[in-house]
Structure formats: structure tokens, C-alpha cells
Design a protein that fits this description.
The chain is α+β, with helices and mostly antiparallel strands and 401 residues long. The chain has eleven helices and 16 strands. α1 (55-64) packs across α2, α5 crosses α6 and α7 (290-302) packs across α9.
Length: 401
């Protein structure tokens, strides 16, 4: 069984410390975070599929692709260090090496991550000065500061923790993430750092992470944009003394807890989408194949026409049908049924059941579901998206200023 600890909790898995400070990359806000384990961790990660990858991502990927343990993760916000060429790569390596030296470990034991403006040289000296400061303020309660320091256009700190009761004891999963705009699989302008004091071997750790990412971070969209810096990292230091063995009932329990915390993080990113006013769950059922279900869900989640209608509380179900039809999925339009929460608006053979007043009340809520039944096969898919407001345009029209 697992139990969530209050969002915003400072609870950390055993042996992990964190901190977040202002080092001068941004004008005023915290912009440097550090997560450190008391001992080396097994590490697994997934990264953006964008062909344009930021320098720190390339450095970190080289580590997690190998059987190398990790001591720490250094993250800066305000500067993506992307599209900065060889100089950017060397800057990333230099900050990694400097941080590793301060922690008395090898550079390959330190992952690095960046988020912010693309195409601007990393202010290395500010980061170096920040490393000197942040090393001295690491604490078991520093996760909230770290979560704040990785924010860009986010309006809310995103920090989560869950306790998992396994057959041989209790373990904790802690996580912070950021993301608000440029959000779409695979993956999004989002960073997520997950830690656990469970003892998990790397192959199983990667399996658990990929399974969770596929049903959480890869099922969200704010604006259909995939970024250059996205990563989700999972660290396991084993300091709880609780081991998760592949094929055991504990694996299933841990996977369920990891899925739950990943979904909560993913939903928090969409709910905090740039200019968003509501969180929408999209449930697609009755598809002939899993691919068809995912294609329809993704198309609805990315449809700007649908998302603007939802912002205006307009029950324009025709935009749902149109988005489904352009998805590339195989289905019979005449079999489709659609509902907003429990209110049926369309039944098979294009029977319109829409009650505008009921639909308006549902669409005016901060959170609701759009349910699309293709009435074909047995496959389903759940996605999360948000509406599109004028504020999104304002935020991104002035992103660098």
C-alpha cells in the first residue's frame, strides 16, 4: 500500500538532501538547485525525443546510459544552455566537474540539468559561485527550495512525496518537478527528479521509470511543443534497507506508488499550464488498438481549436470529432459517443443529446473530463490537457523580456 504525504511536504527519502538558491542567472528568483545523496545511487532517466538536445542533457544522458552510479543532480533555471554549440557543452562539463570536486566525487557521479531561454550562453561564473554557496545549505528539508529554484514560468512549486509499505518494510518516494509551457510528449519542457531510499537494481529501476513515464508525463499536453531540455530522473540509494526485487509483489506495489506520484506530477504541470484556467482529463475508450486510443487522446489534447472552445466554456463537440478524425486513428465516426463528465452530448449515429445549460456548468468548472467512446475495440487511453487563454500568448510573447 502507499500513502501520499501532503503536497508541498518537506519529507525526503532517507539519505537525500537538497537546496535551492539565487545565484544571479535570473533577476531576482531562485535559479540553482542541488540534490545530493549520502551514498552513490543507482540512476535511471528518460529524455526528450527532440532532435535538438541541450548540452547538459547530453552530458547526463551519457552517464545514465551506462552502469554508473550517481551522487548528485545540479539544476539551473533561467538558461537552457541549448543551441550553444561546443562552448555550451564545455560550459556544462565545467560546472559538472566543479560541483563534483566540491562533493569529492568523480564528474560522472553528477548529473546536470538546465531550463530556461534557448540560445544564450550559460553564465558559468554565476553558476560556479552558486555551487560554492549551495553546498553549504543542503538539508533534508531543502526540497521545497529546490523545487522553487527549478521553476521558469511555473506559478506553483511542485513537490510530492509518498510512503510505500512493502513486505519487508517502508520506503519513501520524493519528487520535485517543473513545467508550465512547451509541454507535449515525448516529453515536454519539464524536468522531474524522483528519489527513493528503496534498494533497486538499475535494470529494474529503468523499467519502473519507463512504465510510469508512459502513463503520466507522456500523456500530457499544454501547447503541443516538445522541448530541448526535458528529462525525468529516478535515483535509488537503498538507505531504507528495503529491497525491491524484480518479479515480486513488492515490485507491483512500488510500481503502483511510482505511477501515482508520476501522474500527480504530470497533472500538476498541466494544471499550471501557461495561461491555463482548468485541468481536463481526456478518456478515450473503445479503440481497436492501443495506438488508435493514444492517437485520438493526443490529438484532442493538442487541439488548439478545442482548447480555446473549452476556455470559453463552449460545448463545441464538433471540434472533438474533428480532432479525433485528423488523428490518424482507425474508427467509425458513426459509432462515436461523447460526454462531458456524466453528461452525454453525442450518441452513436450522430444523435445529439447536448443540453447547453448542463454542459456550460460542467465546462465552467476548474476540473472535468471529456469522454470519447469509439465503440470499436477494447483499448483505452487517458490524457491530461488544459484550456488555452489569451494569457498564454502574453506569456510567450514576452518570454525573454
Amino acid at each position: 500500500m502507499y500513502q501520499f504525504i501532503n503536497e508541498g511536504s518537506v519529507t525526503s527519502p532517507k539519505g537525500f538532501k537538497a537546496a535551492g538558491i539565487f545565484c544571479g542567472i535570473k533577476k531576482r528568483k531562485k535559479d540553482l538547485a542541488l540534490i545530493v545523496s549520502d551514498k552513490l545511487c543507482n540512476a535511471a532517466a528518460v529524455y526528450t525525443l527532440n532532435k535538438v538536445k541541450a548540452a547538459p542533457l547530453l552530458v547526463s544522458k551519457e552517464i545514465t546510459d551506462k552502469d554508473i552510479q550517481v551522487k548528485a543532480v545540479l539544476i539551473n533555471s533561467g538558461n537552457a544552455n541549448a543551441c550553444t554549440g561546443e562552448d555550451g557543452f564545455m560550459d556544462a562539463k565545467f560546472t559538472q566537474e566543479y560541483c563534483a570536486d566540491k562533493l569529492n566525487v568523480s564528474p560522472e557521479n553528477v548529473l546536470i540539468s538546465s531550463t530556461g531561454v534557448i540560445g544564450v550562453k550559460l553564465p558559468v561564473q554565476k553558476v560556479i559561485s552558486g555551487i560554492d554557496q549551495i553546498i553549504n545549505v543542503l538539508s533534508e528539508k531543502g526540497g521545497i527550495d529546490a523545487a522553487e529554484a527549478i521553476m521558469t514560468t511555473d506559478t506553483k512549486i511542485k513537490s510530492f512525496a509518498v510512503k510505500v509499505r512493502l513486505s519487508n518494510g517502508e520506503t519513501t518516494i520524493g519528487a520535485i518537478c517543473k513545467g508550465s509551457g512547451m509541454i507535449m510528449p515525448n516529453m515536454a519542457t519539464m524536468l522531474a527528479f524522483i528519489t527513493t531510499d528503496a534498494q533497486i537494481q538499475k535494470p529494474l529501476l529503468k523499467k519502473l521509470l519507463v512504465n510510469s513515464v508512459n502513463i503520466s508525463f507522456n500523456k500530457i499536453s499544454v501547447d503541443g511543443e516538445t522541448s530541448t531540455n526535458d528529462m525525468v530522473v529516478l535515483l535509488s540509494n537503498g538507505l531504507s534497507g528495503v529491497e525491491v526485487i524484480e518479479g515480486s509483489s513488492d515490485e507491483k506495489l512500488f510500481q503502483k506508488a511510482l505511477n501515482a506520484i508520476s501522474i500527480e506530477m504530470a497533472k500538476s504541470i498541466v494544471a499550471d499550464g501557461e495561461g491555463a484556467t482548468k485541468l481536463i482529463t481526456i478518456n478515450v475508450t473503445g479503440a481497436d488498438t492501443q495506438e488508435d486510443a493514444d492517437l485520438v487522446g493526443k490529438s484532442l489534447a493538442n487541439s488548439n481549436l478545442l482548447k480555446t472552445a473549452l476556455y470559453g466554456n463552449d460545448a463545441n463537440w464538433g471540434r472533438i470529432m474533428s480532432a479525433a478524425g485528423m488523428s490518424g486513428a482507425n474508427f467509425d465516426p458513426a459509432k462515436v459517443s461523447i460526454s462531458f463528465d456524466d453528461h452525454e452530448v453525442l450518441l452513436p449515429h450522430f444523435q445529439v443529446m447536448l443540453n447547453e445549460e448542463i454542459a456550460y456548468k460542467i465546462l465552467s468548472k476548474k476540473e472535468y473530463s471529456i469522454n470519447v467512446n469509439l465503440n470499436g475495440g477494447d483499448f483505452s487511453s487517458t490524457w491530461w490537457t488544459c484550456d488555452f487563454s489569451e494569457e498564454y500568448v502574453k506569456i510567450n510573447a514576452n518570454y525573454r523580456t
